[in-house]
Amino acid sequence: MTRIAPFVAGFVFAAGLGVGGMTQPSKVLAFLDLFGAWDPSLAFVMLGAIVVHAPAVRWILRRPAPLLAARFVLPIKKDVDGRLLAGAVIFGAGWGMAGYCPGPAITALGGGVGAAAIFVPAMIVGMWFHRVRLTRADPAAAPLPSATRGR
Fold first, then answer.
1. What's the domain count of the chain?
2. pLDDT value of residue 151
3. How far, in Å, CA of 83 to CA of 81, rounded?
């Protein structure tokens, strides 16, 4: 069951992206074009996700532990620093140039979109490069910090 749950969650996420049209870079780029042919549909998809996700998270975190794990693993770092801001800028610039972010890119790749076949390997190389650079700079920093809650 612990291997099926992430697959089902990923499938539902991918289906939502597909139904919402968010695997089309043109939709994302139109959302980012505030002074041209602005398309608010991405905002509606995001709002729909937040409306479903926010109450679900509050309800789930009331439990002593998740259904398929011994304890919750939650991030503990809450401060905004230069690395976070730089990462957000790089992510946003890449999203604006390509029209893809990781989830929709992988979904588009699964749908046979040619541009995603270029973007996804480049994204993986970038993630690998960052991991290697981060590990060399601070070997203890490779695993992301997390806090546990529950049993």
1. 1
2. 46
3. 6
Q: Are 23 and 113 within 8 A, CB to CB? A: yes
The whole domain housing 19 covers 4-150
Please report, for residues 63, 93, 114, 138, the alpha-carbon distance to residue 5 in angstroms, rounded to integers and kept in the order given: 18, 32, 29, 33
Residue 21: is it exposed, middle or buried by C-beta count within 10 angstroms (0-12/13-18/19+)?
middle
CB 79 within 8 A of CB 145: no
Per-residue pLDDT reduced to its tens digit, 88-105: 898 888 888 888 888 888
d(CA 99, CA 25): 4
Q: Give the C-alpha separation, 131 to 136, whole Å.
A: 9
Kind and range of the H or E element at 82?
helix 82-98
- Give the DSSP H or E segment for 46: helix 41-60
Report pLDDT digits (tens) over 115-146: 889 999 998 998 898 888 877 766 555 555 55
pTM of the model: 0.63
* Tokens found for residue 20: 């919402």
3-state secondary structure of 68: coil
